[in-house]
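task queued by scheduler; priority normal; single chain, no ligands, no partner chains; default sampling; output format set to structure tokens
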Amino acid sequence: MKNFKKIILSLAVVALVLSCFQTPLGKSKTKVYYSGDAINYQGKVVVASTDSDFLELFQLDGKTLKSIIKFKPVDSRFNIESAFYTVILREELGRLYAYVSTGKELLKYNVSDPKNIILADTIKDNSGDWFGGLEISNGNLITKGTRGVKVWNRDTQVVDSFNVFNASNPYSITVGNGYDYIFNVVGNQVEIFDRQDREVIKRITLNNENKGNVKIYNDSAEGMFYVPDGKQLKKYNYRGDIHKSISHDSSFGYDIAPSIDGKYIYFTNGKSIKKLDKIDLKLIDEYQNRTDLGYWAMGLKVVRDSEGEKVVVFNNASITIFDSNLKIVARVKATEQTSKSESVKPIEKLFLQLNKKSAKPFEEVVVSGGGYAANEAITITLGDQKIIAYVGEDGRFAKSFTVGISPAGRKDIKVVGQKSGQSYSISFEIEEVK
């Protein structure tokens, strides 16, 4: 199942990555960005990706796309780093949440305050599902996995499910905001799945050698859907008739997203990012990538901030943000990932201390300590509470948190370094509320 994430890079892109980012065996390797999500939160563009196996969040600040969050999950069974596979962002009651899949679990983090990341919920499916893709549709969370497509309500309960499968690339399943169809690009075919009849009602053959990401845009109000293939961008009605098509300058087609006002669509094909009139597919603007520098446009999101529309492109060697005229606003380049043995060098023995040895629920406690890897994320656990914090250059930290509702008694506060795997616990008493 872990191959989900790897398969979505096509052979051509893999070759491009190897040619542009070769490093000697055993040295650090450069990550690439090919998918993720973006949202407007409190007037700022926030971008998320898990392509590096970390959950990474970036915030657009003027002309700079700055990193604000970066951490990996820890497998509590073996006390080792795990990996994230996919992420979706959603605002709920004024708070920003990141839903992140580890495959077997779906973790919901409150990331409203990057300095105080809180694990709000852990979602498991007793059917043994492996969550390979996520989407928000009509206000509901959608998971796409080995057990098909599932619709979850706000209470994280499955309220509907469909037998739509894409073993090699769940990213290419599109639910969208319509209520009638689910679209699935499997190999060189588009399958149209009727949600009412619960069966595939149409298969359309594409000119498609790309075995990676292919995303459909469904405009339910127009009664049309748009799909890129290796030769053309095509606009179909639900009967499978071509309404309009245009040729493009690549052998690959990846992602499509509408403009905020619905008048235009943006399209990525690796070599370029294009803005087209939605009605007649006339070219309005385009940006030609420097493929010789490793840029290759794949995933695509369109959001609006306080200054207007922004087009977020997961551009292989970078995440690049454009304005509505496809002029670059900001870019964060892919960086080298150092191995665990190279990067983890604690400079002192582990230790923890508390400002108080006991507290009642809803009281504040400060835990501090040291002996962790420089700048790594740590997970602080007290019973069912899990809090993410960060250590400094010296491997030390101090973090205040509010004790949650829990039965009275003695428990351990455990702190685990997400990069180093360093773990230490200290005893703590939860007092009875009288």
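post-processing summary
- The CA atoms of residues 343 and 373 lie 8 Å apart.
- The chain has three helices and 40 strands.
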